[in-house]
Known about the structure:
Largest sheet: 8 strands, mixed
Strand content: 15-25%
Oligomer: single chain
Number of helices: 10
Low-confidence stretches: none
Shape: globular
Number of strands: 15
Order of helices and strands: EHEEEEHHHHHEHEHEEHEEEEEEH
Amino acid sequence: MTAPFPMQDATPAELGLDASRLERLCDRIEADIAAGHHPGAQVAVARHGRIALFRTFGQARQGVAARPDTLWLLYSNTKVITAAALWALAEDGLIRLTDTVAQHLPGFEAHGKGGITFIQLLTHQAGFPSAEVPATAWEDPAILREVVCSFPLEWEPGSFVRYHPATAHWVAAAVIRAVTGEDHRAYIRRRIIAPLGLGDELFVGLPAEEQARAADMHDVDGTVRMPEGSAAGRAAGIPGGGGYGTARAMAGFYQALVNGGSLNGQRILSRRMVAYAIRNYTADRLDDYNGVAMHRGLGPHLRGETPLARGLGAIAHPRTFGHGGVGSSYCWGDPDSGVSFAFLSNTRQTDEFHGPRMDTISTLAHTAII
């Protein structure tokens, strides 16, 4: 039996939001679908522990309408969920985020990686952004540990900020197993997702019985992307890019973070731990991957005060934090207003389209705050 969702619905006005601005946001999503930019999408906006907007658009798969319970590939939005698992390890006294990774994953010190801290790992300063984890390691923890420990350095840790698309969070998965004895998928579900009441709508590792709910992820030309669309890819729980969820589940996850670690009375993290995680650790240093300042926290990035922004909305409060999923999605929370936002779609669009699209949609959400 499906449990009730942990956040109740409310009208925008009840939550101090402008309904007309949220309708403009939805109009933009509908226009993009009509123009063929993606077959389907879902959006949610929440505040003060309640949902002001939750709407589903278009098709999940060819000929299959998207539904409220459709699960969308989160891509790198998954990174913040995995990062929160490391915050929880620190919260429980099992690691310190200032520790070196090798203190908790012996063997990781190989090839000059002994000094890399969890802070460097989570702020994309570790020095191995281009390393690869083969599919053979997805379900074999011994292979995974061997692979991540053998990563070679590309530059001195801490000397650059460069986005690590997958490798840093595979290291996090190996650490979770080394410290707890649990598979990272099981630990994330037990420690982060289930206590928040999001277990029916948020997954890192999609079980076989839930895969029929998954939307296909398409390329710009409309083809279904692989291995993202394979059963093995969905089940793997790729910690930097393989989660699945609904928009309201992601809005709920960020509600917990903007509320200092709790949702609907259920606490997963202390207020101080969340505040520590969403500090700006990289100041205005440029991320060498995309050429803009990302203001990295320990998982999410922050809006900051530089002119250019990624996905969070140009007019966002500087403390707004969140993450995107390549070409397809963005989720964020605003501690100043208490608003959280999630937009998920099922096409991996070009940066030239996705960046301006998300700036517009996120900005419309910010303008709705009364």
